[in-house]
Amino acid sequence: GQQVMQIPQYQHVQEGEDFTTYCNSSTTLSNIQWYKQRPGGHPVFLIQLVKSGEVKKQKRLTFQFGEAKKNSSLHITATQTTDVGTYFCAALLGAGNNRKLIWGLGTSLAVNP
Amino acid sequence: EAGVAQSPRYKIIEKRQSVAFWCNPISGHATLYWYQQILGQGPKLLIQFQNNGVVDDSQLPKDRFSAERLKGVDSTLKIQPAKLEDSAVYLCASSPLTVGNTIYFGEGSWLTVV
After folding, report:
1. Is residue A96 helix, strand or coil?
2. Quick one: pLDDT at residue A92?
3. DSSP state of B35
4. Which residues, given as ranges, of chain A have pLDDT below 50?
5. Which of A66, B4, B18, B46 is the most exposed place for a label (fewest CB within 10 A)?
6. A104 with A29: CB under 8 angstroms?
7. Of A30, A45, A104, the CB nearest to B103
8. Considering only CB atoms, which chain A residues are within 8 Å of B56?
């Protein structure tokens, strides 16, 4: 079936280091959403990307949507312990009544203080 | 604005027993989702409602799981009989209109089957 691959599965960084997670699909995506889930919490919406090549920033977080709309990335500059959690991408594939939101498996980020 | 409400927050049952979860979405949100999230994994869509109609239930184990959304507002998800592998967090979520809009999740209902 349709899949969205998210890598890496786990990332352990020292506080202050940068972090990047990638989301890839073999098919063109209509849009892509990013969510953050803190340990023991529920996914919380971060951002949605729609346009080819789109780049959006939220403080230390930078989100990119590939030119071909088949991949996306989330980059965190100078990680802090508050960034700990699992980051999920969720991609909208298909058209019309066949549209589906497909979730990546997530990247779990651990930050050493 | 009130968020997505779910109950109960925690439930422990024995295998072969039944359990029901309730969800009240954000007011005005037409789309309601039930997701199953097993520890360490991403959310898996069980069923999606648009108002009170089912849009996608392709991953719902229909021999034991059922869900309804009467009057297009509240929803219940039932498991009967429960199996050990049903231990997970059941997340209800809602979004305005249709697929592609931001999804707002509830706190989740944590189920342990022993």
Report:
1. helix
2. 84
3. E
4. none
5. B18
6. no
7. A45
8. 100
